[in-house]
Automatic annotation (TrEMBL):
Protein purpose: One of the essential components for the initiation of protein synthesis. Protects formylmethionyl-tRNA from spontaneous hydrolysis and promotes its binding to the 30S ribosomal subunits. Also involved in the hydrolysis of GTP during the formation of the 70S ribosomal complex.
Keywords, in A-Z order: Cytoplasm, GTP-binding, Initiation factor, Nucleotide-binding, Protein biosynthesis
Residue ranges constituting the Tr-type G domain according to the UniProt record: 145-314
Region called G-domain, residue ranges: 148-296
Cross-referenced SUPFAM superfamilies: Initiation factor IF2/eIF5b, domain 3, P-loop containing nucleoside triphosphate hydrolases, Translation proteins
GO cellular component: cytosol
Protein name listed in UniProt: Translation initiation factor IF-2
Natural source organism: Peptostreptococcus porci
InterPro entries cross-referenced by the UniProt entry: EF-G-like_DII, IF2_II, IF2_N, P-loop_NTPase, Small_GTP-bd, T_Tr_GTP-bd_dom, TF_IF2_bacterial-like, TIF_IF2
Top-rank lineage group of the source organism: Bacteria
Length: 646
């Protein structure tokens, strides 16, 4: 056992430190210092303390709702192996740290001559702890206006970072003392005496991974679009993320100082994606800016304040602190460090908090300028030290009355997390759709569509949305061109959607993310097949399907033109194996350009049945010669699989 403080043991056994020190003296146990026990002495003291408690209570053992084999053995003064042997004789297999039910524990205790009783106080305490995690509703009279929290989103190279830099410079010019140095994942600026908080986490991350964990941290999204470039795939993605999060959008048309700038073209393209700007009779605010020349930056900030005023953002600063973890890391010198956004109440140094599975006392708080602060009110981002471990981005943090409560809640959450990891995720899948419809679980079926061309995206979207009925509303939350990426999988996970790929494949890594997030990815080459599958799933009439089982991936590294034969590919097997009788699909830049069969598979000059990973081979394809160096050949076999409704 590691070193443990007297204070913690006293709290666990509901004794005062004075009483505990007296018992240590009576038992003749040697201490490390006047505050700690460790090693064998700690183990011996705990055993002797348990024995004394047992003698006081007779053969009655009180336990909480959940008990492990180790705890039960210690309570009876028996070894864990003795308890495990009894459990095995009773037909129950359990490890030393495994939890067992109260009924089974009662039978084991009876075998050793003990009576097991539930600890009523622990049940009451557990209910009290649960109540602590429920955030009380605020009374309208306690609410005061709070600053807006803003995320900047947009396509690569459209000027997101430059715009944030320009905004910070504006703040310095407007009279903020000293320069603003970035120390944490958020920054604050003041305009007309009012504060605005900008989150520096990547826009998509703020709307996906956090929203997937149930956190809504952003009040307003600024969508940056370059005036000389227009709407790009990532811009469309950003629009869909912001719409899914249901936050107001302000359009910042950047780079208006460039010669090819055409703001009207941007506004027209935005209208095609359901964003009609105010100039054109819509309700979306747009501001023309230049981050490089610092043009109209203050105008943009004033618009943010205007939207914030309309939204009537308020919070109660006079309650226990609650908020969200923006990002967290393990620092070599400082231990677990978390950047948190306080959303309600006021967080102070010394407050005990729980953040996800982490707990601790706030040892120090550092603001966006790198300065230590004593407290942080609503809509304030600070870096905090003092947590037991690194929480996840998107975890909620809550202030609790004391350290012991914080530890209990964190331990309970860790146990629940372990249980959840052992259970399969309940994300929606096409196979289970009808069963979930029957139970009334599904109201909306969210779909992410990726295709090889924009026309296909629109065609698939229109066809699928027509399938909506009284029970299920089909909503396409995002449609894009290109391979299925990790960002698509994260969006699908956050929105509990399925992904439909038409003539495209998942990029490397996205399949693993989909498996981890339990996101259902379906790829098709024929539109009506996708429509048929969803129709069948909705009616619970799924036929047995023929599934493509990938056997290997091969990279084309050289091509040779041979008269009378055609083009032959010199290849290297990247993973799995390629077989003579398998089918193949040729993928170029994430898009399938050909599906067919092998004409020949060779090793050197010999025909072979298969070639395994790590070996080179020669391939030629039936009636297809348009191959290039860098193309990926995916080998697969077709298997008939019975489809069941779970």
């Amino acid at each position: 056992m590691s070193k443990t403080s007297i204070k913690h043991i006293a709290e666990d056994y509901n004794l005062s430190e004075k009483e505990l020190l007296k018992k240590i003296e009576n038992f003749g146990i040697e201490m490390v210092d006047d505050k700690h026990l460790e090693g064998e002495n700690l183990q011996l003291f705990i055993e002797m303390l348990n024995e004394e408690i047992r003698e006081e209570k007779g053969n009655v053992i009180e336990v909480d709702n959940k008990i492990t084999v180790q705890d039960l053995a210690e309570s009876m003064g028996k070894s864990a192996s003795e308890v495990i042997m009894k459990l095995m004789k009773m037909g129950t297999m359990a490890t030393i740290n495994q939890e067992i039910s109260f009924d089974i524990a009662s039978l084991v205790c009876a075998e050793f001559g003990f009576t097991l009783m539930k600890n009523d106080s622990s049940e009451v305490e557990e209910l009290e702890i649960e109540a602590l995690m429920d955030i009380e509703e605020d009374d309208e009279k306690d609410l005061v206006p709070r600053p807006p929290v803003v995320t900047v989103m947009g396509h690569v190279d459209h000027g997101k970072t430059s715009l944030l830099d320009a905004i910070r410079d504006t703040d310095v010019i407007s009279g903020e003392a000293g320069g603003i140095t970035q120390h944490i994942g958020a920054s604050e600026v003041k305009i007309n005496g009012q504060k605005i908080v900008f989150l520096d986490t990547p826009g998509h991350e703020a709307f996906t991974s956090m929203r997937a964990r149930g956190a809504q941290v952003t009040d307003i999204a600024i969508l940056v679009v370059a005036a000389d470039d227009g709407i790009m795939p990532q811009t469309v993605e950003a629009i869909n993320h912001a719409k899914a999060a249901n936050v107001p959008i302000i359009i910042a048309i950047n780079k208006i100082d460039k010669p090819g700038a055409n703001p009207d073209k941007v506004k027209q393209e935005l209208s095609e994606h359901g964003l009609l700007v105010e100039d054109w009779g819509g309700d979306v605010i747009s501001v023309e800016v230049s981050a490089k020349k610092r043009i109209n930056i203050e105008g943009l900030l004033e618009m943010v304040l205007l939207v914030a005023e309309v939204e009537e953002l308020k919070a109660n600063p006079n309650k226990r602190a609650v908020g969200t973890v923006i990002e967290a890391e393990l620092d070599k010198g400082r231990g677990p460090v978390a950047t948190v956004l306080v959303q309600g109440g006021t967080l102070r140094v010394g407050d005990p908090i729980v953040a996800g599975v982490a707990s601790g006392k706030v040892r120090a708080m550092i603001n966006y300028k790198g300065k230590r602060v004593k407290q942080a009110g609503p809509s304030t981002a600070v870096e905090i030290l003092g947590l037991s471990e690194v929480p996840f981005g998107g975890d909620q943090f809550v202030e609790v009355p004391n350290d012991k409560t914080a530890r209990l809640i964190a331990e309970k959450r860790q146990a629940l997390q372990r249980e959840e990891m052992l259970k399969s995720s309940s994300k929606i899948s096409l196979d289970a759709l009808f069963a979930q419809m029957s139970e009334g679980k599904v109201k909306d079926l969210n779909i992410v569509i990726k295709a090889d061309v924009q026309g296909s995206v629109q065609a698939v979207k229109q066809s699928l949305e027509k399938l909506s009925n009284d029970e299920v509303q089909i909503k396409v939350i995002h449609g894009g061109v290109g391979a299925i990426t990790e960002s698509d999988v994260l969006l699908a996970s956050a929105s509990n959607a399925i992904i439909i790929g038409f003539n495209v494949r998942p990029v490397s890594g996205s399949e693993q993310v989909a498996e981890k997030e339990s996101v259902d990815i379906r790829t098709y080459t024929i539109i009506y097949k996708a429509i048929e599958d969803i129709k069948a799933a909705m009616s619970g009439m799924l036929d047995p399907e023929y599934v493509d089982e990938d056997t290997g991936k091969v990279e084309i590294r050289e091509t040779y033109k041979i008269s009378g034969v055609g083009t032959v590919a010199g290849c290297y097997v990247l993973s799995g194996k390629i077989m003579r009788n398998c089918k193949v699909r040729i993928v170029r830049d994430g898009i399938i350009i050909h599906e067919g069969e092998l004409a020949a598979l060779k090793r050197f000059k010999d025909d072979v049945k298969e070639v395994a990973q790590g070996f080179e081979c020669g391939l030629s394809f039936v009636n297809y010669n348009d191959i290039k160096v860098g193309d990926i050949v995916e080998a697969y076999i077709v298997k008939a699989v019975e489809r069941t409704i779970e």
